[in-house]
From TrEMBL, chain A:
Gene Ontology cellular component terms for the protein in this record: microprocessor complex; mitochondrial large ribosomal subunit
Large ribosomal subunit protein mL44 endonuclease domain residues: 70-202
Compartments where found: Mitochondrion
GO biological process, one term: mitochondrial translational elongation
Entry keyword Transit peptide: yes
Family according to the record: Belongs to the ribonuclease III family. Mitochondrion-specific ribosomal protein mL44 subfamily.
The name this protein goes by in its record: Large ribosomal subunit protein mL44
Gene Ontology terms for molecular function: double-stranded RNA binding; ribonuclease III activity
Keywords recorded for this protein, A-Z: Mitochondrion, Ribonucleoprotein, Ribosomal protein, RNA-binding, Transit peptide
Lineage: Eukaryota, Metazoa, Spiralia, Lophotrochozoa, Mollusca
Domain Large ribosomal subunit protein mL44 dsRNA binding positions: 233-332
InterPro entries, A to Z: Ribosomal_mL44_DSRM_metazoa, RM44_endonuclase, RNase_III_sf
Main location (coarse class): mitochondrion
Pfam families assigned: DSRM_MRPL44 (PF22892), RM44_endonuclase (PF22935)
From TrEMBL, chain B:
Name listed for the protein in its UniProt record: Large ribosomal subunit protein mL43
Example of a GO MF term: structural constituent of ribosome
Source organism of the structure: Magallana gigas (Pacific oyster)
Coiled coil: 157-184
Keywords: Coiled coil, Mitochondrion, Ribonucleoprotein, Ribosomal protein
Length: 354, 190
């Protein structure tokens, strides 16, 4: 089937056709018979498409399958890409996943080789270390950035950044995917996350812990751009927390007032509630109903008190944060503790009045 | 093909690259060429003159050089997101090849599609959402409507009635001036 096609598509024929076309206007049809009106070409292409759909798409293959692959060079480039100096042996260990070790052991059993691979050579230990490092430095950075934010809010942001989705995409961005030694390609998200954490630990081991902290801040904090950090902490009772906060600061308890309302009998109703303390507006927000508006206004007031409102300055870059002198253990005030403290004092005060 | 049927995206910065630390998205580059054919001349020149400098200044890119007998020269760029782009560079001279390699180095590796806008912002407003009560005076809350002050109909132009009244006043003034002039003249004559 392909033979007549090839013959007529050969270069000399095409050139000949062009020259003929230049001189004759009317016998186009004759000259392009095999190119435009070929009876054999459409069925041939159709068959090709059918076979392709039957087989399915090509499975994704590792770049080494295409012939050009030098693992040492790739590891060197990985370090340079991130601007870090790695100890090659530690980095190599960081890329070996559990599934790869299992696969290797099975293969060796099949062949009958008796040498054993130590179980500790995979990146599990490093990833655990890396996870602790990430949490430690991320929280310290966030506390430095938001000194008035509650510890729960900081933990919520940290949790968001530690999700599999985000860590896997960060790992992908820095080029972990092709370097992981794993049973399957592309590696699973969990393997990507483990490897990313192991890489963080490798930075700490090859250099210093602060360097790993800067690495974490540089690659994870940009993921907060465009995200609402206040919505990450799910607050059930913002009004209760607000009154506790105001009480702890020695301010008057919050009073909510309806500032505006419109379209109350329609489905597009709008209420605008403001919250006052000592006759001073500390937060206001719109809402579809009065309760929603009040809740949102309380959240807004808390945002203003925590200095994490929408008009806050942008995140600090890692070079502007003194990671060396940061107190990693120091925690921000806890909202739960505050609530417990002031709800108790409320009840005792009520008892005293009775 | 209309623009509706073609894929389009907004401007993407892959993973906020460069906000914290910039990571060059080109992972490896494979240069393929023939050692003998004339069409690979430019690529051979590039390999002789510039390749070492390129590799030295970009240690984050792994360079593979692969001679193929009697094939056209090509550049294959593999990116960190898994995409790879192949450019055929046979019959190109060294300068053109330099430009193609520079393009591969500075790209993010996402597919080239039509952009709906050339800009993008993640936080459209830091002042908060617009609502119908923005910049309204709270004293309106205490008014009972209909209110004479708030219900006043303001007209910027001069109405016909006002215009006639103004004319009448002017005429009166003129007449007064005339009368005064006459009386003065009378006085002189007397």
């Amino acid at each position: 089937m392909a033979a007549p096609l090839l013959r007529h598509l050969s270069r000399t024929n095409v050139i000949a056709r062009r020259t003929v076309l230049a001189f004759s206007k009317h016998n186009n049809d004759m000259q392009c018979r095999y190119l435009r009106n070929s009876k054999s070409l459409p069925p041939y292409l159709k068959e090709q498409v059918e076979r392709r759909t039957k087989v399915g798409p090509e499975p994704k293959r590792h770049p080494s399958a295409f012939g050009c692959w030098n693992y040492d060079a790739e590891l060197f480039a990985f370090g340079k890409r991130l601007g870090e100096d790695f100890d090659v042996d530690i980095l190599r260990e960081a890329f070996i996943s559990r599934s790869y070790i299992e696969m290797e052991i099975e293969e060796r059993k099949k062949v009958g080789v008796k040498t054993q691979i130590p179980d500790t050579s995979c990146n599990e230990e490093l990833s655990i270390e890396g996870k602790q490092l990430i949490q430690k430095y991320l929280k310290a950075y966030l506390r430095f950035n938001f000194p008035y934010m509650f510890e729960e809010g900081i933990c919520a942001i940290c949790e968001y950044l530690m999700t599999t989705e985000i860590l896997a995409s960060v790992g992908k961005l820095i080029g972990v995917r092709d370097l992981i030694q794993s049973k399957h390609y592309p590696p699973t998200d969990e393997e990507m996350v483990d490897t990313f954490m192991a890489v963080v630990a490798a930075v700490a081991k090859s250099q210093t812990e602060e360097r790993a902290g800067a690495f974490v801040v540089d690659f994870l904090v940009p993921r907060l751009v465009g995200k609402d950090i206040n919505e990450m902490w799910k607050l059930d009772n913002p009004m209760g927390l607000l009154s506790a906060v105001l009480q702890s600061r020695g301010m008057a308890s919050p009073e909510s007032r309806l500032l505006w309302q419109t379209g109350c009998s329609s489905i597009m109703s709008l209420y605008h509630v403001g919250i006052y303390s000592d006759k001073e507006l500390i937060g206001r927000s719109p809402g579809e109903t009065l309760t929603i508006a009040e809740k949102q206004a309380a959240k807004e007031a808390l945002k203003n008190l925590m200095k994490s409102d929408d008009s806050r300055p942008p995140f600090l870059s890692s070079s502007k944060v003194p990671l060396k002198s940061l107190d990693l253990e120091k925690k921000n005030p806890s909202a739960d503790l505050l609530l417990k403290l002031y709800s108790q004092s409320d009840t005792s005060a009520q008892r005293a009045t009775k | 093909m209309s623009s509706r049927s073609l894929p389009a995206t907004r401007l993407i910065n892959v993973g906020q690259n460069g906000v914290g630390r910039y990571v060059c998205q080109l992972a490896r580059i494979t240069l393929r060429f023939c050692k003998h054919q004339a069409s690979s001349r430019g690529m051979r020149d590039f390999v002789e003159n510039y390749l070492v400098d390129f590799a030295r200044s970009n240690p984050n890119v792994v360079v593979y050089v692969k001679p193929h007998r009697h094939r056209g020269a090509s550049i294959q760029a593999d990116y960190l997101n898994g995409n790879s782009h192949k450019t055929r560079v046979s019959k190109m001279d060294m300068d053109d090849i330099c430009k193609w390699i520079e393009l591969a180095r500075t790209r993010s590796g996402v597919d080239i599609v039509r952009k709906t806008k050339n800009f993008q912002t993640h936080s459209p407003s830091i002042q908060g959402v617009w609502h119908p009560f923005l910049f309204k005076d709270p004293s309106v809350n205490l008014k009972t409507f209909p209110d004479s002050e708030y219900g006043r109909f303001e007209v910027n132009e001069v109405t016909a009635t006002e215009r006639i009244l103004q004319l009448a006043e002017r005429m009166k003034q003129l007449e007064l001036e005339k009368g005064e002039g006459k009386s003065e003249k009378d006085g002189e004559s007397v």
